[in-house]
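for ur thesis appendix - Phosphatidylglycerol lysyltransferase domain-containing protein. copy paste whatever u need, i formatted it the way the template wanted (i think)
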Amino acid sequence: MWRMLHGPHPEAVPALLARACTLVGVLDIAAGVFPRFRHSRLHHMAEVLPGSFGSFAAALSLSAGILLLLLAHGLRRRKRRAWHGAALLLPTGAVSEYVHRHSIVGVLIAVALLVPLLRHRGEFTALPDPLSRWWALANLVLTGVGSVALGLVIVSVHTHHMVGNPSWSDRLEHVLYGLFGFEGPVHYTGNASWAVGFSLGALGLITAITTVYLAFRAGQPAARLTGEDEAQLRALLEKHGARDSLGRFALRRDKAVVFSPSGKAAVTYRVVAGVMLASGDPIGDVEAWPGAIERFMGEAKAHSWTPAVVGCSETGGEVWSRETGLEVLELGDEAVVDVKDFSLSGRAMRNVRQMVKRIERAGYETRVRRIRDLSDNELERIRRAAEDWRGTDTERGFSMALGRIGDPTDGDCLVATAHRQDDEPGPYGDLKAILHFVPWGTDGLSLDLMRRDRSADPGMNELLIVAALQAAPELGIERISLNFAMFRSVLARGEKIGAGPVLRAWRGLLIFLSRWFQIESLYKFNAKFQPRWEPRFVVYADAWDLPRIGIAAMQAEGFVNLALPRFLHQRGAELAPTG
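the 3d part is after this line
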């Protein structure tokens, strides 16, 4: 404890205090749950820890332990409200120790934790995270399940005082009754009945209090672009949008934005599970990027979010690393096809050429048009088809997805559609497949989404990409960005002769993961069009953050879903691509 008073660097204090609270919380929970623990040597140490409040208060010990564990997580992230909670709990525990047990040692331990907490209060400045009311429901479910599981342990450890041999269903019923403060079917001798009853009641009370707190605390709005933000971003893209193929995706309206002090650059982001996740390069003048990056990092520090960037270019990675000291790791490659070099002739394009010819002989035709050139009826039909053909319960896309089709402000987007007249037209007439592209400067396109009728012939995506490439010269398009291929270089090098065992093992793991994440299939699909490969990178602070960043990125892209089931969404919700 004294090491925390004098020894560590100030930046390490939050972590040390968090570990101390974690240890105290675990010991308090053990003292409140297990009767034998209260007669062990370890318990004699735990008795003088703040939160134990005396031998008769097992329920209060359990409650204090759980609260300390919750506070430990907030202290580790330097959250201001966690500091307030700990600063209130520790002196309360010290007073209780002295009043109930006259324990000087317990008071000293509470003070030993409280002194560095007060001394380094300037370290705990992180603001609350953006809050959704769904967190209250998630807390109710998760904390409720945890309370039931811990309650079963509490009910079952008092076997020597249990009357009879109640079944597990009786014990579960006793827990459920106890969480609401009622007596259940399990009976005990002596004071065990009171200890179990108070402990279960404490668990139920914690679940109720934390859920009500999350439901009624003043929440912050979810990430949304305001009309003014969007107008400013569009002005930046008008001048500098040709530099990055992902630039247009900054206009997703479920992102937030920070601008440089000059207003000449911006970084868009979304906060997912405590990770401040940006995608692509900053928008705007490269000379103004440092100012926007500094604002981004300042926002991350203010809320104690983990900063990360996915899908930035090599130039973007160099600027992020130079300005922030963050690490950069190659994530994969973006497939870019130069229109002037594209041709269906040659051996390399044989498979694509044969597939396109076969589909055309089957009666399919293609149309490539700007969104502004579509009629309202046809645009609405494309919207509904794209939603119904999504194929998953979750909308996917974040770094390479616009999240909508046919917005009045997106008239310069391009849509390629496949059509075939059938004897029995479907709900969308002759429409069979859709590709949607967003502008990449004035002479480029970036693929947004691919959707098709499941009853259509295979090869619809190849057909429409070829159609877009062939129509590109008349539209003034010189380059088209296709899908992003994760770990493309590993897959390409690992299948060559002479690849080492480590590289082959890494490639084998990626192929195995491709069963769920389409890693290999996207690479092979992109490779059909003989693109040039542009590397993309992930920017992160510490290697230990990479798993957390990966999970946050999968949540943002829609591969890990915590949203409502699809059948509960309104039919007219905004669209997002399949990724």
